[in-house]
Design goal:
Radius of gyration: 19 Å
CATH architecture: Sandwich
Largest sheet: 8 strands, antiparallel
CATH class: Mainly Beta
Helix content: 10-25%
Structural class: alpha+beta
Number of helices: 2
CATH topology: Jelly Rolls
Shape: globular
Number of domains: 1
Distance between the termini: 16 Å
Order of helices and strands: HEEEEEEEEEEEEEEEH
């Protein structure tokens, strides 16, 4: 009876917490050696959120990185490295029309300045009046001084925070339906008016190169507080549930002794 009550109350709470994450690409696929090229084909890069939004290699130039040194983000075991032109596409991501709230976050470690712009993420948009039909927004880095830039329906607001090369940084953008808020390493760095919704997502190159590492790309369908951003310490759902079940079974075993 005790086990039933624990499962009844605790598991729904965890499901509620995780419900807002609609896509999480950790690049933790097994069976690939350090430096291996991401293979062509659909649904090979898995969505760990459980929503089935798996990614397809869109353009070549991506490799898995799991070797010694600082080649993956905190809490991760593997990342992808972009030589400049590589990209992934997740066509199934769609947050709907209107002022739908969302959060996008990822870890990046840029290794070289390109001198132009460095594409990180791009969303596609539906044919809304007065807006382009082929993209929703770009999240990219200024290629000369490594600052985060957002290219969307409200111009090109650029964050003033300069990101040092060869260092991991967590970047995030939230949108509540009326304004964007920018975060670097969990700290709010500014806001800008505007809104856009998702209708597909591209990770990596669209028309500008990015040279460096990327890891832990995550999309949520609500505005997350900075304390809710992925920081490497948040357990994956499967790990959390397995651990919780083990604790429950252990507790029940002790009570029976």
């Amino acid at each position: 009876m005790k086990i039933f009550l624990i499962l009844f109350f605790v598991f729904p709470c965890f499901s509620f917490i995780e419900a807002s994450v609609i896509g999480h690409w950790r690049f933790e696929e097994s069976g690939f050696s350090d430096g291996a090229t991401l293979p062509s084909g659909s649904n090979l890069i898995l969505d760990s959120s459980g929503n089935g939004n798996h990614a397809t290699v869109r353009t070549s130039g991506l490799t898995y990185e799991s070797g010694a040194g600082d080649t993956f983000a905190p809490g991760s075991n593997q990342s992808i490295r972009n030589s400049g032109s590589g990209s992934l596409e997740i066509a199934s991501i769609n947050l709907g029309a209107g002022n739908t709230p969302w959060t996008v976050e990822l870890f990046v470690k840029k290794t070289s300045n390109t001198g132009t712009f460095d594409d990180l993420l791009m969303t596609r948009a539906t044919n809304e009046a007065g807006r382009a039909s082929n993209f929703g927004f770009h999240l990219r880095l200024d290629g000369s001084n490594t600052r985060m830039q957002f290219f969307g329906d409200n111009g090109n607001p650029t964050d003033s925070t300069v990101l040092p090369l060869n260092t991991w940084h967590h970047l995030a953008i939230t949108n509540d339906g009326s304004q964007y808020e920018f975060f670097v390493d969990g700290v709010s760095t500014g806001v800008a008016a505007g809104n856009f919704h998702f209708n597909g997502l591209v990770i990596g190159f669209t028309d500008e190169n990015y040279i460096g590492f990327m890891d832990e790309v995550r999309v949520s369908n609500e505005v997350l507080a900075s304390s809710q951003f992925f920081n490497g310490a948040v357990p994956e759902p499967g790990t959390f549930l397995s651990t919780l079940l083990a604790l429950v079974l252990f507790w029940n075993f002790r009570l029976r002794r």
